[in-house]
Design goal:
263 residues, single chain, globular, 2 domains, six-stranded mixed sheet, 9 strands, three-stranded mixed sheet, 2-enoyl-CoA Hydratase, Chain A, domain 1, alpha/beta
Length: 263
């Protein structure tokens, strides 16, 4: 398949679905894909009508990570992996963490290497039962990147993070759920319906509050209690002036469903 459309973006009912579209290459990353993925996230960020995001891959895999065919192994001019990470993967992960809208990863098949990091960088991960997560870096003499060394111990603790990173073995989706690495593992046949329902629900919720929750929770494990208390205070001041806070209170007092608008 041509890389002309390496990433697809579809927006329906407040939900933006971003699809990595290199199924013949297991949606592995190239610089071209990175450029299109950055454009998709930029469009989602700017579109006020988008209240939730689904990130997935076309075909039988979520993503196999970096496409080695997009790298140079010429001894005279090898690809500088640090430069590649700094110019592509790091901005992507930072953008996803900073996006004030919820991101749901829909994972089927393999999520390996940077593909696993990409899935875990989402706010909620829903995986099919046949899916698996693989910290493949060590198998080619590398270390986890794209936030992997930060995300793994934060989710599963140091012991399991080291086991996953050092041994480079597949972790089945069901065990990933049991370990707290992902939000939910469902039967493959139910994956689409589960993700659609979850994203649809998020798209009706108070989007600004969800963005603030993302910010506070992601900072918590590297912050002190005092810093977290201060941030909660500041965020609550901001949320208390929002339309959705007033709507939520009025709905509660009048015993009716809230009609949040994400503002």
């Amino acid at each position: 398949m041509s890389d002309e459309q390496a990433v697809l973006l579809q927006i329906t009912g407040g939900v933006a679905t971003i699809t990595l579209n290199r199924p013949d290459k297991l949606n592995s990353f190239t610089r071209h894909l990175h450029r299109q993925l950055a454009q998709a996230f930029e469009a989602v960020e700017k579109d006020a009508a988008v209240r939730a995001v689904v990130l997935t891959g076309a075909g039988r895999a979520f993503s196999a990570g970096q496409d080695l065919a997009d790298l140079s192994f010429d001894p005279a001019a090898p690809t500088d992996l640090g430069e590649l990470i700094e110019s592509t993967f790091n901005p992507l992960i930072r953008r996803m963490h900073a996006l004030p809208k919820p991101i749901v990863a829909r994972v089927q098949g393999i999520a390996a290497g940077a593909g696993a990091s990409l899935a875990l960088a989402c706010d909620l991960v829903v995986a099919g039962r046949s899916a698996s997560f693989l910290q493949a870096f060590v198998n080619i003499g590398l270390v986890p990147d794209s936030g992997g060394t930060w995300l793994l111990p934060a989710r599963v603790g140091v012991a399991r993070a080291l086991g996953l990173a050092m041994l480079g073995e597949k972790l089945p989706a069901e065990k990933a759920e049991q370990w707290g690495l992902i939000w939910k593992c469902v039967d493959d046949a139910q994956l689409d319906a589960e993700v659609a329902a979850l994203a649809g629900k998020l798209a009706t919720m108070p989007t600004r509050a969800i963005g603030a929750i993302k910010q506070a929770v992601r900072l918590a494990h590297t912050s002190t209690l005092d810093a977290s208390l201060d941030l909660e205070r500041d965020l609550q001041t901001e949320m208390g002036a929002s339309f959705d806070y007033n709507e939520g209170v009025q709905a509660f007092l009048n015993k009716r469903p809230a009609r949040f608008e994400g503002r």
